[in-house]
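Example 3.2
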Amino acid sequence: MPKLLGFTLLGALVPGLGLIVGGRRRLGAFVLTLFLGLVGLGVYVGLTRREEVLAAAVVPSRLLMTSVAIGAVAFGWIVVIVASHRSLRPATGGAGGRAFGATFVGLLCFAIAAPAAVGVQSVLAQRTLVQDVFQSQGESKSATRPSTVNIKDPWEDKPRLNLLLLGGDDAPSREGVRTDTVIVASIDTKTGNTALISLPRNLTFMPFPKDSPLHRFYPDGFGKEGLSLDGRLEWMLTAMYQNIPDAHPGILGPSDNEGADVVKQSVGEAIGLKLDYYLQVNLQSFPEIVDALGGIRVNVNERVAMGGVSSSHIPPKEWIEPGANQHLDGRHALWFARGRYGADDDQRQVRQRCVIKSIVDAADPQTLVTKYKAIARAGRHLLRTDIPQELLPAMVQLALKVKSGTVSNVTLDSDKLRLKYLHPDYQALRDTVENALESTPVPTPTPTTPATPTTTRKPTTTTTTAPPGPVQNLADACAYNPAGDQPN
């Protein structure tokens, strides 16, 4: 019996050997050759075609084929285990030995079937995520994204990919959606180095490109003179997502998300970059994705309020206390990113960028493999985007570069750029971003001659308001460096 079970186990670990030892040599040799061939192919692909494999993980048709292949391989493996044991088992064995052998074979089959089932479920969860969140170029509508996709080499003529990251502060108790988090991620498509540009939510008179239909209604930007502080709330950047589509439905053309298209146009004009795509996060579902990742780790440099209303002097009931390398679950991570009692927008923006960095760090291969079903389920509730399915393989390869690249913060001097004033200096903001990215000036869409943009620029403003050294590595910005004064 020990010899029989030993060869059965060996035949399960190396399919084909059990058949050969049991006398079915031709069939065993075929199965062994097939097994070694599949192992060799897997090693070759894993070592030399890693990016292609990851890119295939965002193609629904390939994911379906992968799930079928996993099931077929697992079924074939189980058949080989059973056949090997039957070939090895003596015809005159007793009932007790047969029962023990059958139990042992059943355990081996379960050891193959269980992980295969998990694998199939994870692959199908990924397929559902891709299909639910990312629509194909022809099946979705956007008024602001690139009209065509170069699938073979989408970055051929695009040195930087500019993504708009929106945090939608929607909730059952709140009417409409406020984009309290507005961050532009400008990615170098060659190196993956990424610059994050955070805009304060209370910016007023946000501009529009001259060729935009909205420029006719807001030639001086989205804002009104002579309003009280409370009255300005409906004319700030945070209100554009909801208020402009309500006032001018369909003005930009067919769109699946008019609010995102409006914000893309305006933010792109404000910072002088052409924004390609948006990625919108539903903040109410944000804790779900953090919990699916097993939490994140951040350095908490100051007390962060979990609730409270500064304007009404209502203190929070809970705080996140300062500490190095703290582990935060989804609920605490959300408050760490958005807590505003006793803090200004600059502090919140730094925390939000640190949360993004922590999520990138937490999404390591081990976490993705072991918790992917929960991550995919949370992603379906969390994300909304106009990135087309056709671009996903290239986006995966770019994401690998971002993972190994440098994530930095473009520092905006609120005083010099007048970001907290009624009329911010948007030209100086464009100059600051341009200097930070070390790129050539971005031309406006309407000029027909090179001289036109030169006449609209303000050289004096450029030299006096664009702050030097505007880029800060997020590893430094998010390091543990507690301040002396803490909110109370």
